[in-house]
Amino acid sequence: MSAKEELLGLLEASRGSWVSGEEIAARLGVSRAAVWKAVDALRRDGCEIAAAPRRGYALAPDSDRLSAAGTRRLLAPGTDLRLEVLPSVTSTNALVRARADEPEGLVIAAEEQTQGVGRRGRSFYSPAGGGLYFSVLLKPQPGTLPAPLLTAAAAVAVCRAAARVTGRTPGIKWVNDLWLDGKKVCGILTQGSLSMENSGFEDVVVGIGINVTAPPGGFPPALAGVAGALCAQPRGGLKNALLAAALEEFWALAHSGDGAALAAEYRRRSILPGRRIAVLRGEEALPATALDVDEDCHLRVRYDDGREETLLAGEVSVRPDE
To answer: Quick one: 21 exposed, middle or buried, by C-beta within 10 A (0-12, 13-18, 19+)?
Structure first.
């Protein structure tokens, strides 16, 4: 870990208090000059750090910069993850997939993606300022949920984490979106590599993108009607707290081996049953009513001609006019 990252973690842990340069140097095992250089580097990264003679340094109370050190200190003991935080990436899923030969538990998180990817290869809007984007590497084994349920586990995990950290609880729009106040606040993308030996998944990467707050200037017109944010205003340490809670919840669910309990909670949190939807099939949008989510987290629907179907995968949209 760099001196810059260690310093940010120390200031996060001392949020609201001053820490002298002498104490920082002693705790990090570096010179006072190295402390000053680390402070300067963090400021250039956008961190608001106050300095005062004979008092030292302090992180601004409302600073909400994501950091590995700031997140790690909030993780429960035994959460066996290797967390890396970068200010900006092409795609957290792409970076983790490129390192899929590593042991499971690799997590890459960022505050901006320049080439974020959604379902069906669509672009996933991931601007700097209000978002939290991260991907987790898993290696399915006994005790791990079946790969098709990991998306459901991620959705439930973020709902739990949001409630813990913000007091607000999104609902799940099948199959991989979270909605709050009628708008999408989180998207999930699960990608895996099949093993030629056993026809199972060799590795799975689960990517999660959360609109923590609206980006500076708001969402672009094309998204303003459908994209929302978890919180109206930023607050100090919010992203670190949300990332730590989501990772804890997801890691525990993914390794619980209890698909029945997960499916039951996923069903309770689902917002579609009873609502009018459109089932998207290529260029077609077939009007239907969502009936229920089954024990495998599949969506049962009834089309307007009376036919019923269980959707194992795919995409639906909510019909706001009905």
So the answer is: middle
Residue 307 makes CB contacts below 8 A (sequence gap 6+) with none
Q: What tokens does 111 get?
A: 């505050």
What is the C-alpha separation between 315 and 226, in angstroms, rounded? 16
Three-class secondary structure of residue 117 per DSSP: strand
Nearest to 317 by CA among 127, 91, 150, 119: 119
Q: Which residues contact 215 (CB under 8 A, 6 or more apart)?
A: 127, 128, 129, 130, 131
As a whole number of angstroms, the distance between CA 224 and CA 154 comes to: 25
Phi/psi for 84 (5° steps) reads: -125, 135
* 18 DSSP 8-state letter: -
Cβ-Cβ contacts under 8 Å for 203 (sequence gap 6 or more): 100, 104, 137, 138, 139, 140, 192, 193
Question: How many residues are recorded in the chain?
Answer: 322
Structural contact between residues 53 and 18, judged by C-beta atoms closer than 8 angstroms: no
Q: Which residues pair with 276 in a beta bridge?
A: 289
Question: What residues in the chain have per-residue pLDDT under 50?
Answer: 322
12 touches 69 (CB < 8 A): yes
pLDDT for 1 equals: 66
